[in-house]
Amino acid sequence: MKVIKYLLLAIVCILAGSFYFFRTKSKSKKDGNTLVVGIAAGYAPWVSINAQGDYEGFDIDVINAVANTMNKKLVLQDLGSMSALLMALDQNKIDAIIWGMSITQDRLERMAMVRYQGDTVKSFPLLFWGKIPNNIITINDMKNMTVCVEPSSSQDTVLSKYPFINTMPVEKIDDALLNIQYGKADAAFVEPAIAKKFKNKYPEIQSLDVPLAPENQEFGVGICIRPADKELIKGVQNAVDALLQNNVIQEFEAKWGIGS
Amino acid sequence: MIAYISVIMKGITVTLGAWLLTSCASLLIGTLLGIISCRYLGSAKLISIIRMYTFVAKGIPAYVQILIAYFIVPALLGVNIPAFAAACGALAFCSSGYTTEIMRAGINAIPRGQWDACATLGYPLSAQLKRIILPQAFKTIAPALGGELEQLLKSTSLLATIGITELTRTGMNIISRELNPVPVYLTIAGLYLVFSAMLGAVLMYSERRFLYGQR
């Protein structure tokens, strides 16, 4: 039994040591001159990892420029998914989120969003592989059809108003391509920027615009910040305004093929 | 795909690194708890505590455990646990629940006479376990342990949920850039198969060499 007691003691010591080590490290990570921003790679052209293993994309260029303008050191934290990003912001693990997130009424009720790109979106495209069936003129004609959608997205909220449509949740919106290509779903409901990306790669994709009710409309793309961080919101807003005024963000849009 | 070789290699390194760490931790903790909770050594109180642990570790999905380890545990303890450490810790915690059960079942399968013989010959407990009990138990549980280690290899893809760029997430990132899901997913599947085959070969070799004494 002595051996077992020593082993248990060793495990407890290792755990305690780890906690102490990480506690010391965490203090140095966040300070007043650092901007810790949550991202989630795998969402090209907004954020992705290039062949060299570095983060790149429209959002990365924008947030680098914002941090430079604010004279802050930028720390990017890849959190993998929307739910992880929102939890991290909630828990003060990060200062802001930049991930091509659309500004919606729903989100504005929960957090502050500083718009840096895009105009008001009044419709979302419904994508079909090949021809749109003749009997489908509007979304109301899609009774009992299956539509791919990203859970918790603005498209998901809109689709919930059409209970006669079967929704197929996909973990990554790029997986919707597979589903419509191989006939597992009839259509995919996506952001206009994603539709543009898909159609550029696969010209056979056809789209049908679904008009949005005023409460579902989007007001561009924004950087999410906790509402209580008034100073940070003001700083980011000023930085974004300066970048827009100097056409820096417009140049990034052209570089990454985003926008109209 | 060729252009992405270096990021795929990084993904492989993270996947195999996470697997090695979690499997070592799982085997260590599982063996220890399996020994403590076996019917010849464990006290009723200790056994019920360990049973509670295995119930929690096996009952909560690994995905949820990773989220708890990364978001909730640090908030409760007031520490900042890095994503990789949190994810590996959660996977090890989850897998240890299974290895504990496997180990306990293997040790319990050793006839009472073996323990009594050791005691009669005056072997200390460490020698009893090392020389007599564990070698026999391993012989029985080797396939089940191998299966658990293979399962753990595939579970490393859950690390992606908190932003760790392991092999599967590397594939997702390439798909997002190139929009070519079929070849990328097939490549990732092929790589996992290669790792599983390598692990299977190592397990088979160990079974023959160390457990059955064949060369």
Low-confidence stretches of chain B: none
How far apart lie the N and C ends of chain B?
A: 42 Å
Q: Largest interface here, residues on each chain?
A: A-B, 44 and 41 residues
Could you say which structural class the secondary elements and strand pairing of chain A correspond to?
alpha/beta
Distance between the termini of chain A: 72 Å
Total count of strands of chain A? 12
What is the H/E string of chain A? Answer: HEEEHEHEHEEEHEHEHEEHH
Q: SSE order of chain B in H/E notation?
A: HHHHHHHH
**Average pLDDT number of chain B:** 91
CATH topology of chain B: MetI-like fold
- Radius of gyration of chain A from CA coordinates: 22 Å
Largest sheet of chain A: 5 strands, mixed
Q: Please give the count of helices of chain B.
A: 8
Mean pLDDT of chain A: 88
CATH superfamily of the largest domain in chain A: Periplasmic binding protein-like II
Oligomer description:
heterodimer
Largest sheet of chain B: none
Into which percentage range does the β-strand content of chain B fall? under 5%
Shape of chain A: globular
Brief summary of the model shown:
Chain A is an alpha/beta fold and 260 residues long. Chain A has 9 helices and 12 strands.
What do these coordinates show?
The complex is a heterodimer of chains A (260) and B (215). Chain A is an alpha/beta fold and 260 residues long. Chain A has two domains: 33-119 and 220-256, Periplasmic binding protein-like II (D-Maltodextrin-Binding Protein, domain 2), CATH 3.40.190.10; 123-216, D-Maltodextrin-Binding Protein, domain 2, CATH 3.40.190. In chain A, 40% of the residues lie in helices and 25% in strands. Chain A has nine helices and twelve strands. Chain A has helices spanning 2-29, 58-69, 82-90, 105-110, 154-159, 175-181, 192-201, 230-245, 248-256, and strands spanning 34-39, 48-49, 55-56, 73-78, 96-102, 112-121, 123-129, 146-149, 166-169, 187-189, 205-211, 218-225. A five-stranded mixed beta sheet of chain A has the order 4-1-5-12-6, with helices on both faces. In chain A, strands 9-8-10-7-11 form a five-stranded mixed beta sheet. A two-stranded antiparallel ribbon of chain A has the order 2-3. Chain B is an all-alpha fold and 215 residues long. Chain B has a single domain (2-211), classed as Orthogonal Bundle (MetI-like fold), CATH 1.10.3720. In chain B, 81% of the residues lie in helices and 0% in strands. Chain B has eight helices and no strands. Chain B has helices at residues 5-36, 44-59, 62-77, 83-108, 112-121, 125-155, 167-178, 181-211. Chain B is globular, with a radius of gyration of 20 Å. Chain B starts with a helix and ends with a helix. At the A-B interface, helix 1, strand 2, helix 3, helix 6 and helix 7 of A face helix 1, helix 3, helix 6 and helix 7 of B.
